[in-house]
Amino acid sequence: MEWLRKGETYICAMPFNFTDSVNLLRKLTIRRAWNASKVLGSYYVSKYLKQPVQWGLPISISFEPTTSCNLRCPECPSGLRAFTRPTGMLQQDFFRDTIDQLHRHLYYLVFYFQGEPYLNPGFLEMVKYAGDKGIYTATSTNAHYLTDENARKTVESGLDRLIISLDGTTQEIYQQYRVGGKLDKVLEGARNIVRWKKKLKSKTPLVVFQFLVVKPNQHQIDEVKALGKEMGVDDVWLKTAQVYDYENDPNQLIPTLDKYSRYKKNEKGDYQFKGSLANHCWRAWHSPVITWDGLVVPCCFDKDAQHQLGNLKGKPFKEVWQDSDYKSFRSKLLAGRANIDICANCSEGTKVWG
Question: Does the pLDDT at position 81 exceed 70?
Fold first, then answer.
């Protein structure tokens, strides 16, 4: 789940969809609500005391199905094959064991970090396992593997939200960011999902076209909205792009439309990050990331798992969550977030709803 900072409070950064909102609320139990209140309370106490306090267990987590990917996107470590950590697949027995530890408190599960989830042959079985525990499940895909069979299995799995990356409405523009991708495959996969939802009379998953706004495709914003409506997807989301080397922008990705850029030019004409780095971060209190091989890292900006806060292959999650390494990382956030490398280019997943 993505969050935006607004003043001194945090708001959930996703547009309202009545059916999806009702579905999400149905997942809420008394135990999960109580856990969420404890987590939120500990976050505000930590901000006030400037000392890390952690009550409760995560409200949401991101679980990485795989680091493998079929595309070569220029700002993605998976696409660039630039990881220093090993590539592999999440194993179902490890996933089930972790979910068994957390499901009574866990409200929201993102099946994504790096890589293409559908490359993991057990992906949809894991989705179903979590869904059967009453957890809201979401994933993001490049949609090249949404065959008719996989689309049917996706709907049958109970997946609650399916985000389809669609960064261009023509092949020429689409492939400039989604290098190696085929737009017709993406659209075919989207049609398969929409068709099977209707056939099975299912309200899930919520199907979203996510349009990463970059300089090459910024002129297609209206076109992607029209395409989404034509194809019958539930929504179209516009997302701002993270550019690692934004000062030089070697791939010429930063949009010229200021609304859709995380960066702005200073008086010297150089790009700088728009955001301000307050010395706190809600993610470190409510939403960790678990890699395919069991490493716990603070958030999705730590793509190469440099800030390892524990290993679930060696100890249960609760011990990692309360371990000295996690407390030390939260202390660093409270002392000076600008000094943490993964925070320097972080806009906390800012999306622009169009």
Answer: no
Torsion of Cα atoms, 173 then 176 then 180 then 183, to 10°: -20
HEC assignment per residue over the chain: CCEEEECCEEEECCCCCHHHHHHHHHCCCHHHHHHHHHHHHHHHHHHHHCCCCCCCCCCEEEECCECCCCCCCCCCHHHHCCCCCCCCECCHHHHHHHHHHHCCCCCEEECCCCCCHHHCCCHHHHHHHHHHCCCEEEEEECCCCCCHHHHHHHHHHCCCEEEEECCCCCHHHHHHHCCCCCHHHHHHHHHHHHHHHHHCCCCCCEEEEEEEECCCCHHHHHHHHHHHHHHCCCEEEEEECCCCCCCCCCCCCCCCCHHHCCEEECCCCCEEECCCCCCCCCHHHHCCEECCCCEEECCCCCCCCCCCCEECCCCCHHHHHCCHHHHHHHHHHHHHHHHCHHHCCCCCCCEECC
* Whether this model's pTM surpasses 0.85: yes
Distance in angstroms (rounded) separating the CA atoms of residues 79 and 1:
23
| pLDDT tens per residue, range 125-165 | 999 999 999 999 999 999 999 999 999 999 999 999 999 99
Q: Which pLDDT score is estimated for 251?
A: 83
- Residue closest to 321 by CA, chosen among 307, 313, 311: 311
Q: Are residues 230 and 222 in contact, defined by beta-carbon separation less than 8 angstroms?
A: no
pLDDT(9) > 50:
no
d(CA 172, CA 183): 9
Long-range interactions of 221-225: CB distance < 8 A, separation 24+? 221/260, 221/354, 223/169, 224/166, 224/169, 225/354
pLDDT single digits (tens) 171-200: 999 999 999 999 999 999 999 999 999 999
> Which pair of tokens denotes residue 290?
């678990």
pLDDT tens track for 43-60: 999 999 999 999 999 999
